[in-house]
From TrEMBL:
<dbReference type="GO" id="GO:0008475">
    <property type="term" value="F:procollagen-lysine 5-dioxygenase activity"/>
</dbReference>
<keyword id="KW-0560">Oxidoreductase</keyword>
<dbReference type="Pfam" id="PF03171">
    <property type="entry name" value="2OG-FeII_Oxy"/>
</dbReference>
<keyword id="KW-0479">Metal-binding</keyword>
<dbReference type="InterPro" id="IPR006620">
    <property type="entry name" value="Pro_4_hyd_alph"/>
</dbReference>
<keyword id="KW-0223">Dioxygenase</keyword>
<keyword id="KW-0408">Iron</keyword>
<dbReference type="GO" id="GO:0005506">
    <property type="term" value="F:iron ion binding"/>
</dbReference>
<dbReference type="Pfam" id="PF25238">
    <property type="entry name" value="OGFOD2-like"/>
</dbReference>
<protein>
    <submittedName>
        <fullName>Procollagen-lysine,2-oxoglutarate 5-dioxygenase 3</fullName>
    </submittedName>
</protein>
<dbReference type="InterPro" id="IPR044861">
    <property type="entry name" value="IPNS-like_FE2OG_OXY"/>
</dbReference>
<keyword id="KW-0732">Signal</keyword>
<dbReference type="InterPro" id="IPR005123">
    <property type="entry name" value="Oxoglu/Fe-dep_dioxygenase_dom"/>
</dbReference>
<dbReference type="InterPro" id="IPR050757">
    <property type="entry name" value="Collagen_mod_GT25"/>
</dbReference>
<dbReference type="GO" id="GO:0031418">
    <property type="term" value="F:L-ascorbic acid binding"/>
</dbReference>
<dbReference type="GO" id="GO:0005783">
    <property type="term" value="C:endoplasmic reticulum"/>
</dbReference>
<feature type="domain" description="Fe2OG dioxygenase">
    <location>
        <begin position="201"/>
        <end position="294"/>
    </location>
</feature>
Length: 294
């Protein structure tokens, strides 16, 4: 019972209390006065609580403060460079507090209009700066960026038509968590903006972080994504971390160059939104991409 008291605020009818009590005076006057005299039990609180129970007098514990909650340390792996990042399934409250953008909750509200910088390209706050920084740190620590070639052993078909310099979530043990993220966060906004499309849980075989650099891969030529819809999360900022960059939708003749770290684009994949990654002219641009429902 004490366990639950610390979890939340409220009032509970309990079989035993100790240390501090408040007693209604009419109980004392009514002859229901508890007894401290039970043979063989030394602890006064235990004796007293038993006597109250025997007389049918209820005891309550009340709590108006939030003292915190229990964390689950079972899967916390200190050998990882960002152990917290891997905790969505096991410690969701901490994870959301650390990684979900404070304005994301409002995006789910049917009355909140989601920005559309280009036709059918939605743009909204999703994750925190800590998420962006930890994602980049995990990927740079792993360090095995693809070489940008068409042949790619990580893919089921072994071939990528429009390759990027990237690391897949699968390579750093984050594929399963990412599926949960798509289902519990991304899907909710998808169902709101692309009305009448339902696919639960979302499926995605390609979830990866892309690195653009002038001397490595500065840009990405126009292509369609192998997805029903794509999410493209900015992990860092133009004019701070790099110059140039952004995403251009060719048919719509519309570019988004003022992307913001922690905000994601969500756009249709394989037919209407032919798009390209614009050249990064200095610095490094990082984005996180998912091709949802291929
Ligand atoms: O650079 C961008 O924002 C576009 C990235 C992209 O289209 C892709 O990775 O498929
Ligand atoms: Fe793309």
């Amino acid at each position: 019972m004490t366990f639950e008291v610390f979890l939340c605020s409220g009032i509970w009818n309990v079989p035993y209390v100790s240390t501090i009590y408040m007693i209604r005076s009419d109980v004392l006057k009514s002859g229901q006065v508890p007894s401290f005299e039970v043979q063989g039990i030394a602890d006064l609180d235990v004796v007293w609580a038993k006597s109250l129970r025997d007389k049918g007098t209820f005891m309550y514990v009340s709590n108006v403060h939030h003292y915190g909650h229990l964390v689950n340390p079972d899967s916390y792996d200190t050998s990882l460079i960002r152990p917290e990042y891997y905790q969505l399934a096991d410690n969701r409250l901490e994870w959301e507090y650390r990684y979900i953008h404070e304005d994301f909750e409002a995006m789910k509200d049917p009355d909140t209009v989601i920005q559309q910088p280009c036709p059918d390209v939605y743009w909204f706050p999703l994750v925190t700066p800590a998420f962006c920084n930890d994602t980049i740190a995990i990927m740079e620590h792993f360090g095995q960026w693809s070489n940008g070639a068409n042949n790619d052993k990580r893919l089921p078909g072994g071939y990528e038509n429009v390759p990027t310099r990237d690391i897949h979530m699968k390579q750093v043990g984050l594929e399963r968590q990412w599926m949960l993220f798509l289902k519990d966060y991304i899907r909710l906004i998808q169902e709101k903006v692309f009305t009448g499309y339902f696919h639960n849980p979302p499926v995605s075989l390609m979830n990866f972080v892309v690195r653009y650099r002038p001397d490595e891969q500065p840009a990405l030529r126009p292509h369609h994504d192998a997805s029903t819809y794509t999410i493209n999360i900015a992990l860092n900022n133009p004019h701070v971390d790099y110059e140039g960059g952004g995403c251009r939708f060719v048919r719509q003749n519309c570019s988004i160059t003022n992307t913001r770290a922690g905000w994601t684009l969500m756009h249709p994949g394989r037919l209407t939104h032919f798009h390209e990654g614009l050249p990064v002219t200095s610095g490094t641009r990082y984005i996180m991409i998912s091709f949802v429902d291929p």
